[in-house]
Design goal:
There is one protein chain. This protein is mostly helical and 76 residues long. It has a domain of 50 residues. Helices cover 91% and strands 0% of the residues. It contains two helices and no strands. The mean pLDDT is 94.
Length: 76
């Protein structure tokens, strides 16, 4: 009788965990969808800023490239 009770308890626990995993997967999917939307909006905003001020954008990109080049060691 105890083994049957243990099996039933194990099965119920498995069902609860499975439902929780599905819930968490759904929440993760929603979070990824929101992140995709935010990245698209940031991309559009950046593209608009570059269109409005191309020279400043070029200078910033050059500064970032220079900073990265001085941080990252050369292979030679």
């Amino acid at each position: 009788m105890r083994s049957l009770l243990a099996l039933v308890t194990l099965a119920l626990t498995a069902l609860i965990l499975e439902e929780k995993a599905r819930q968490m997967a759904g929440e993760a999917h929603e979070a990824v969808d929101q992140a995709v939307i935010q990245v698209r909006e940031a991309k559009q905003s950046l593209a608009h800023a570059v269109d409005q001020q191309p020279l400043i954008s070029l200078l910033i990109a050059g500064g970032v490239a220079y900073a990265l080049a001085s941080i990252i060691p050369s292979r030679g």
